[in-house]
Amino acid sequence: MRVLLVDLETEWRGGQNQALLLLKGLRDRGHEAELLTASGSALGQRAIQAGITVYPVSRGIFRIPAARKIRELLSRGRYDIVHANEAHAVTAAWLAVWRRRAPTQARFVISRRVGYPIGKSALAQARYLAADRIVAISQWSAERVAPSGIPTHKITVVYEGVQLPALPSAQRRAGARSRFGVAQDDPLLGCVGVLSPDKGQEWLIRALALLRKKFPGAKLVLAGDGPCRKKLEVLARELGLQNAVVFTGFVSDVESIYAALDVFLLPSFFEALSNALMSAMAYGVPSIAFSSGGPAEIIENEKSGLLVSGPDVEEISGAVSRILQDRDLAARFSKAGRARIEQKFSADIMVEAMLHVYEECLRNNSEQVS
């Protein structure tokens, strides 16, 4: 199978991590997988390092340069599938295939990584109606696509996945904690993600203030950067937590964060899924998330982690306390959480499911032709 994956995002986030896992997974299974991406993008750089063929382009006005390059590549008849991995890519890929579709041309697949409905404008509708398949990353995300007027037979759920790592050794855990200036016996909470309003890190800082009444040595690591960093730093100082909250900025070797943690928290209000949560569970870190959105599909409450109702400081603090106080509970969540990822949210499962989507699109096209 020949696949062109299109992703014009310049920063490295969860969607770009999934794109790289998919490209590598397809290649490792003997398929031809190539990437068209924005010049200088983090994904492009990592894909090149992984030996993937990369076509760098300017995003340009209305994504026209990218659309022209896609059309040029398609004119050579090189691909069975054109897969748009994010919103900018959707526009470019749609422009490339618009008015050029024929039964024998490449099939058009879109990944839907957000939790809000598709716009009602004619342009927004046209882009998604042109797709052979829209792949939502969670049931929650899919439920928000369906009311947009997209035929339900075009919508498929393929959960994102992560690679299952080796569990961190005691030595690695000690080294990771030392890096962030955290003593070996201090309870350490952590969150990985962009520091933005919808990610909810404010509530972790507020919960830490309450938690430290019971666990005075407790600390919080916030890995990531973003527009809310200064506001969060001010809040930490106001609550007297300037020495208890560690702001790491962007961390390239994010596995060092998971190796250091006692508890992982995901306080996002509007998350379609979460690479960070899946990674934490894969590393065996007992995890807590808000019960809204995709994270509630990852954690089975009281079995593979804990779900809390939302930005309730006492509830968040209480959930963390349960894990810190009960070693058996923490061990159970660690083991069950890792098993949950291995059984349903692994990178291998994601790649196989996406291949099945591609095959269905090609089979449906073949039946139409015949």
Largest sheet: 7 strands, parallel
Poorly predicted regions are: none
Topology as H/E string? EHEHEHEHEHEHEHEHEHEHEHEHEHHH
Structural class: alpha/beta
Q: Roughly what fraction of the amino acids lie in strands?
A: 15-25%
Q: Helix proportion of residues, in percent?
A: 40-55%
Radius of gyration: 22 Å
Strand order of the largest sheet: 3-2-1-4-5-6-7
Overall mean pLDDT? 93
Key traits:
single chain; 370 residues; alpha/beta; seven-stranded parallel sheet; six-stranded parallel sheet; 15 helices; 13 strands; 44% helix; 16% strand
Outline the structure in words:
It is a single chain. This protein has 370 residues and is α/β, with parallel strands linked by helices. The chain is 44% helix and 16% strand. The strands form two sheets. It has a seven-stranded parallel β-sheet, sandwiched between helices. α8 packs across α13 (313-325). The radius of gyration is 22 Å and the shape is elongated. The two termini are 20 Å apart.
Short structural summary:
The protein is an alpha/beta fold.
Write the layout of secondary structure elements.
Blueprint: E1 2-7, H1 14-28, E2 32-38, H2 42-49, E3 53-57, H3 64-75, E4 81-84, H4 87-97, E5 107-112, H5 122-129, E6 133-136, H6 139-145, E7 155-157, H7 170-179, E8 188-192, H8 201-211, E9 219-223, H9 229-238, E10 245-249, H10 255-260, E11 263-266, H11 275-282, E12 287-290, H12 295-298, E13 306-308, H13 313-325, H14 327-344, H15 347-369
Parallel strand pairs: 1-2, 1-4, 2-3, 4-5, 5-6, 6-7, 8-9, 8-11, 9-10, 11-12, 12-13
Helix pairs in contact: 1-2, 1-15, 3-4, 8-13, 11-14
